[in-house]
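Notes from the pairing session

We agreed to fold both candidates in a single pass and log them together. This is the raw record for the first candidate, unedited. Please don't reformat it; downstream parsing expects exactly this layout.

Candidate A
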Amino acid sequence: MDPISAAAAAFAAALPADTRVESKKMFGVPCAFVHRQMFFGTFEETVVARIGPARVAALAGQPGMRVFTPTPERAWGDYVQVDVPADAELLKSLAAEALAWTLLLPTNVKKPKAPKAERRAKARAAARQD
């Protein structure tokens, strides 16, 4: 099994069975959302869980765990990144903790789309500046 498939399988096995959870793909990989906020997902060969900065600081540095850093210049301090394979019970616990933490955050509000004519005008203006 390739690492991405292993991460996807670990994600699926640890995902909480809660009717508020929406599982979908983001950037082509499995992620889970609650109140329009991502709380659990995959990244390359790892699983990420949004557990808050204090818990991330407490866990980062343990074997196979670190602050989620999708690009070298951008760390996501609310998320812990866990190498796969990892203990299944640990991942389930982190997923449940991430769900509980994220439920405390405000619901993301979907931004209305700008009218099509406005989007076209912005695109033309940006093209002229290039």
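Candidate B (folded immediately after A)
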Amino acid sequence: MRVLGIDPGSQTTGWGVIEGDARRYQLVEYGAIRTVAGGKFSTRLLNIANDLEWVIARYTPEVCAVEEIFFAVNIKTALKLGHVRGVCLLAGERAGLEIHEYATRLVKQTVVGYGAAEKHQVQEMVRLLLKLARPPQPHDSADALAVAICHMHHADSLLRASKAEAQVKLASLSQAAFRRRSR
């Protein structure tokens, strides 16, 4: 499986692509989309969308894992971050990718083992897990790779849960059909 992880940000949106499964995965590529802080916000959103579409076309992921908004003191910042997340989700959806969203605490818990881990701890664990010589820079890219790693670890659980749900539905339909024939 090839996963694109995204850490949305209005000034810097980190992205990272990894492939493999929950037991063994490796880095494909990572980077950051930087926008001009004083620029028109709608233009910044367009640049993020265009760059993400390029990343998706270039690295052909099957899944897009996006970090959820965690907490923002400033409501304007939270709203802008929400817009950026919407652009990220839209780019993934347009490309037909399977979309998953993960809370920041879950990402940190999965990658570092501690839900309130610091940025440098996430960077170092990503470096170790992906066997990199140096921690990914900027930290937004490391966060995006952490989101992708989190998805790798939780994908098996999601698959098992959806299979179990499908089996329950099938059993329920079979019982209903049997009852109709028995009447």
